[in-house]
Design goal:
homodimer; 562 residues; alpha/beta; FAD/NAD(P)-binding domain; Enolase-like, domain 1; five-stranded parallel beta sheet; globular; oxidoreductase activity (chains A, B); flavoprotein (chains A, B)
Chain lengths: 562, 562
């Protein structure tokens, strides 16, 4: 009878144990879990905190409504789950773990044939003065969740500061702001959600502001201010202070790999446990899965830290199989796919962003920004703004998308393209599910591909909104051409000195353009589709320095008129 | 100056002309369109008929709200659009088309260097007695749409019959039923939506019934009954009659390829114009795109008739490029992707269904049915039921999905897998966008892959609901084991003599199973996830003939208790 011990009973650990049981009815399987709960739906914490649902049990129960407690694991899966029990050390020579019951202090030693480490992540706590004041929390555990939900329910805190604008920071921002607490999110980097590039992240920040949240980027927190041991405010690096009764530290997590390190297992450069393709550690009897490990990027092949719930579950399943039947299943790693609800917006990404490509040393890539609807106008279209990256072989490197519309389908589609290493030519005629309730006749992702084709073939010259803005700030002489109709212009326009020449009148109004055919002309419209048609016409008429402002007005994150 | 003539100004034709213009500002481009409208959003007709939106102009206008009439085409695109003008003949030797203005009867001849045929499809009208009675219509044109919308708005028709349960039939069924008209849909085949297999189609039909529509399958219409030239009812092949003041013929469309045939162009076995990979017909000066053509299946490589709006748009764009810059872009064909809203359900498919695989002569494929939620329970999970097909090399052949949840993302994901010719192993660890508002930690599509793996590795033996039903009808001795809890059983159960043994009690109740370890035992639960766990336990305890009823209770289309 094989003895399997699993350290950690959240996503990866519980999955590994359950899969092992299905493959071996008679193995002796033990989960050792430090917290009182098992199989927590940790990604759901922000939604419970924000009141999207109110039954805490739902974070812990099966679809049939049964709490996944030790009794459930015993009865349904014949797995012994020791909760509130901490593993103190792994004795690799003796193949034993030493653990302690946190409730009563008793210690015991448990032998294993195969050990699984699934100890997850720990929240980063930077050494900021005042960090231990009451009223400051992270959001990693059920206990953190219970605390934040209690703060919400008590209704006494009127102002909160979120420190950090990653996934958790943004999700908690929505949860608290939607609960009637005035939230200020402070991010030291110059943007939120670093899986997005700056240009798309700024659109997300604007949306967060439109929903009432304050978003400050490019400024760090220098101190937490307190009174009588309780938080009363946050001091920023720029000298400003924000009064608040609650602060949520969301500056990231790191692999909880200390136990493995102490046991002498190999630890990688990201601080995660090193695993091979079978998710086996440097000790063949020990496997690891989830946030405590580092895994390969499917794009760059380099090891990365990818603390994502879906990957933890998939990896746990792989481990469950390999510990029972031997190394048969390989885990390919992460494609850097992420998605996040941000109030009415959704923001998602797969593959490499431009920033990530730069960081990986890739240079010969091309990007385009595409703004276009997620379905036909008559079905209540909502604009999506996306960015596509291809490498020098025109292979799809990455895709990001934000907006009010169906981002989830966009990212799922692109994630498959990225993972299948498809080229642009292999995606632009993809036969995707089309009917008016679900997409426009030409899907938004395919439209992004079409724009990329135009750009790579030299039919379109793009310019980023940021570059246009910087040129304007520098006082450069530009001829900005808005190709829309007067009524559209009235409704919304940039107000940066642009000329309104509706596309339908352009051919008869070429005399209003600069006499110098080499003058820089920047064309756009709401989404820059007509902007591109304007470019085609002007080029044909001999203008040599015409550019399309990619994404058009809806991709413009700066102040605009109306 | 290149002379381009496009016959047909709906999806493919308008797209080809517009793309050609962007690539050649000075070409002479003419669209000849039989109907008064141009660039109609034909896939939107059912939603206008059903009152999802009420402004007819929205079917015809740009996102900026401008009607795409001849003035628009002239001004914005410098394209001459002749509407209500019919092409009578193509003179290939002289490179001319002869056409007639249907408003005043004047005829003219227009020369071309490149001709595009985009004449679309015509509705099949079977020779049923009474078919010309007033009150019977197809749904293909704006005129049909206006008629049906007027019937809806008049509110006089109380009962309608839809003849045909394809995409259009089902969409019109929803439109009319939602408008307060009692609809009976009659389909001669034994299921609706033939892009689905029978087992999933039956679930769609049950949903349609739950929304008030009558659905009759396996019975044809033998006659339309009239009074004074007006429809009063429909007589079915089984002798029954249905009173109705409206009948919609939706028994399919065929390629409108008569003009091409008369011009001596090659026509394929599906009746569509034959085109090469550049969408060029048998005459190199003539291209064709959209519903009038037949195109290759990306799966079987055989030519098929695929009258889909998205493919027409993509093909039109390819033609627009090839007629201007020479044959540079190839069109890969269809992956058989389809999606359809059916009241609260969505039904979609990509690649081959089991029926389509059989029809194509493929035999060595494996299927699984997966029922599981589209997101976590606490986010308002809705069950999806899907069916995955892989071939003998474990390449993904096809995927269908129906249910209340997000089917669109499912089919988009699978469509990319099918088109990239990914294998099961390449999809089961796909890094898809996960956050609780969008999916469960392990995506439904990946779960289908996991079940397939279990099946192919001999860890799970599946049995279809239909097979279980047929065994029960034949009086076979089966031990049906429902592995749920008593409260779940009370809420809903099959009531076919099954034994309730909750999974959590099973290991201590093995003595309640048949003494004969070779007895046929069929395990299930609501979605057959616990059904599978039951199978694992029973097999380990020596039972040799254990099967899992795939999809569980939610995939059971037959009457059940509660």
């Amino acid at each position: 009878m094989k003895k399997i011990v699993v350290i950690g009973g959240s996503a990866a650990g519980a999955k590994a144990a359950s899969k092992a049981r299905r493959l071996d009815e008679f193995a002796d399987i033990t989960i050792i879990q430090k917290s009182p709960e098992l199989s927590m739906a940790a990604c759901g914490y922000p939604y419970y905190i924000g009141g999207v649902f109110n039954d805490r049990r739902q974070l812990l129960c099966t679809p049939a409504g049964v709490i996944r407690d030790p009794t459930f694991f015993q009865k349904a899966k014949n797995i012994k789950a020791l909760v509130e029990t901490e593993v103190r050390a792994i004795d690799r020579n003796a193949r034993q773990v030493h653990c302690r019951d946190l409730k009563n202090g008793t210690e015991q030693t448990i032998a294993y044939d195969r050990l699984v480490i699934a100890t997850g992540a720990v929240a980063v706590k930077p050494p900021i003065p005042g960090i231990n004041l009451a009223g400051i929390t992270t959001l990693l555990t059920m206990a953190d969740t219970d605390y934040l939900r209690a703060v919400r329910d008590a209704g006494e805190v009127k102002n909160a500061v979120i420190v950090g604008g990653g996934l958790i920071g943004v999700e908690v921002c929505e949860a608290l702001q939607s609960s009637g607490i005035q939230v200020t999110l402070v991010e030291a980097m110059d943007q939120v959600l670093n899986f997005l590039d700056w240009d798309l992240a700024k659109l997300v920040e604007n949306h967060m502001r439109s929903q009432g949240a304050q978003v400050l980027t490019g400024v760090g927190v220098s101190a937490f201010i307190g009174d009588n041991g309780r938080l009363t405010g946050v001091q920023l690096a720029d000298g400003k202070t924000i009064d608040c009764g609650l602060a949520v530290l969301a500056v990231g997590v790191r692999p909880n790999s200390g136990l493995a390190r102490e046991a002498g297992l190999s630890i990688g450069e990201c601080g995660g446990i090193t695993v091979n393709q079978y998710l086996q550690t440097s000790d063949p009897a020990i496997y690891a899965a989830g946030d405590c490990t580092e895994i390969p990027s499917r794009i760059t092949r380099k090891p990365v830290f990818a603390p994502m719930g879906d990957l933890a579950n998939l990896a746990g399943r792989v481990v469950g199989e390999n510990i029972v039947v031997g190394n048969t299943v390989t885990f390919p790693g992460t494609a850097h796919t992420a998605i996040c609800k941000v109030f009415q917006f959704t923001a998602g990404s797969t593959g490499l962003s431009e920033q990530a490509a730069e960081k990986s040393g890739l240079r010969n890539y091309t990007t385009v920004v595409n703004a276009s609807p997620d379905k036909p106008g008559f079905m209540g279209a909502r604009i999506l703004i996306s960015k596509l990256l291809v490498d020098e072989h025109q292979q799809i490197l990455g895709y990001q998308c934000v907006g009010l519309g169906d981002v989830s389908r966009q990212i799922a589609t692109a994630a498959m393209a990225v993972q299948a290493k498809l080229t642009l030519a292999e995606t632009v005629h993809a036969d995707l599910p089309y009917a008016p309730p679900f997409s426009p006749a030409i899907d938004h992702f395919i439209t992004a591909g079409h724009i990329m084709e135009n750009k790579l073939q030299g039919r379109m010259t793009g310019i980023r909104v940021r570059e246009v803005w910087e040129k304007l700030q520098a006082g450069e002489k530009l001829f900005l051409l808005d190709g829309r109709n007067p009524d559209e212009y009235e409704e919304m326009h940039l107000g940066v000195g642009e000329h309104l020449i509706p596309l339908g009148t352009l051919r008869s109004r070429l005399d209003e353009l600069p006499a110098d055919k080499a003058a820089e002309i920047i064309c756009f419209c709401k989404i820059s589709l007509r902007g591109y048609e304007v470019e085609c016409i002007l080029r044909a008429h001999g203008y040599t320095n015409v550019k399309v402002m990619e994404g058009g007005i809806v991709a413009w994150p700066y102040p605009r008129k109306r």
